[in-house]
Design a protein that fits this description.
Chain lengths: 113, 312
């Protein structure tokens, strides 16, 4: 029978796979940001499984990887907020949110005088 | 199979279903909603993994990510940009699927081959936690044993905010972030924005305070405070401050600055950078956390408010 750590570990592996696929295959930048977060959360979950397996000394899990995951979640959120701000600025400046060079009005920023 | 095991498998299936929905949904808005649901379900997984501190962080950040991404999806959609036929390249999709499957399979093999007994630092933490005066081992790791990570994490938050601000066009440089929110002053949103913050502020401070001995901490508490501030701003009861304000910038650097000063003081009062004299470890850690909670709340609030868009 599978233990909880195995179930969630496989879940983490699948989340990484789904995120990686979305990151490469979806052309829309916002969807890429979502997919990247999915990939990252899979990595965190993998680390969480490692932490749970390290339960010892009366703790339910190894607190060191748990603390590292918290730091990781915060850093991932910072990166997401910056990426979203970049995307919104790109949209404001070119009128479209696409990464295709041919479709952006290169060099025309209507918000600048 | 026990009930707990069945629940875990059901939870894992739900989480993966939401993940697949986030990737496969046609509408970006639907994908974002799927991602938020995924984050909340993941918080339940963290509880099952005995990581309640992580679960609190995941739930708090999941909420903020939801605000951020739903807002972005709405702004990108209102444009009425025709969904440009960014044709999905068939070959690319197949190649990406194959690559993703290989990576996932390798990771799955890794999960099944994890060493037994697992390596752990839990006994080392248990042996040294008393010196910090803290009862929550995760807070002990964050604030003492790996304080450097936490200090740098705060700097990263600040750098992200500097990055967001520097996207402002010249004419609104240093101005107020985001659009001015308008809401019916007698509506539900404005009502909630008056009702919830007093409760939310108390809960936020409580979560920060109990973090010393129980699940919680500066980051989780600060996130709740940020959410309350955002609620009041969204309801139009207050406006986002212009980012050029001196007091605002002082609050933003307060957390990392106090952390750094205490860390440097450790060079001659303790055993080295970021080491606390044992007799004062707990008060020093709480001092750092008070400053950090405030800084985190303001930083997160402004990160979500976005780049300056108005000069007034």
């Amino acid at each position: 029978m599978m233990s909880a750590t195995t179930v969630f570990g496989l879940c983490a592996a699948a989340a990484v796979g789904l995120g990686l696929y979305g990151l490469i295959a979806d052309p829309q930048p916002l969807r890429k940001i979502l997919a990247f977060n999915l990939l990252g959360s899979g990595v965190f979950l993998f680390f969480g499984v490692v932490a749970r397996r390290g339960a010892a000394a009366g703790f339910g899990g190894d607190p060191v990887p748990q603390a590292l995951v918290i730091t990781g979640i915060v850093v991932a959120f910072s990166a997401t907020a910056l990426a979203v701000a970049l995307l919104l600025r790109l949209f404001e400046a070119t009128g479209s949110a696409t990464l295709h060079a041919t479709q952006t009005g290169a060099g025309t920023d209507p918000t600048e005088p | 199979m026990t009930i707990a095991a069945a629940l875990e498998i059901a939870l894992a299936v739900l989480v993966l279903g939401m993940a697949a929905w986030t990737i496969a949904a046609r509408e970006t808005f639907a994908a974002v909603v799927g991602f938020v649901a995924y984050g909340l379900l993941l918080a339940l997984v963290w509880v099952r993994l005995e990581a309640v501190d992580v679960a609190l962080t995941e739930a708090a950040i999941g909420g903020l990510s939801g605000i951020l991404l739903v807002g972005a999806a709405a702004r990108l959609r209102t444009s009425g940009t025709p969904a440009v036929a960014e044709s999905p390249d068939g070959m690319l999709r197949v190649a990406a699927a194959v690559l993703a499957a290989i990576v996932a399979a390798a990771l799955a093999a890794g999960v099944l081959a994890l060493p037994d007994p697992a390596p752990t630092l839990a006994p080392a933490v248990a042996a040294n936690i008393a010196a910090t005066g803290l009862g929550n081992p995760v807070t002990g790791v964050l604030m003492a044993f790996r304080a450097m990570d936490t200090l740098l994490e705060k700097v990263v938050l600040l750098l992200a905010l500097v990055g967001v601000w520097s996207l402002a066009p010249d004419r609104v440089w240093g101005g107020r972030p985001g659009p001015r929110h308008q809401a019916d002053p007698l509506g539900v949103l404005a009502f909630l924005a008056r009702l919830l913050p007093p409760v939310g502020i108390v809960v936020g401070i409580y979560i920060f305070w109990v973090g010393a001995d129980h699940p919680g901490g500066a980051f989780q508490g600060g996130t709740i405070l940020a959410a309350m501030w955002l609620l009041v701003m969204t309801a139009g009861l207050t406006d986002a401050p212009p980012v050029r304000l001196r007091w605002l910038r002082l609050v933003l650097i307060a957390g990392p600055a106090v952390f750094l000063v205490v860390g440097l003081a450790g060079l001659w009062l303790g055993d080295g950078f970021l080491s606390y004299p044992i007799a004062y470890a707990k008060p020093l850690i709480v001092t750092i956390e008070v400053a950090m909670t405030l800084t985190i709340a303001v930083t997160l609030g402004l990160l979500l408010a976005g780049a300056p868009e108005r000069s007034a």
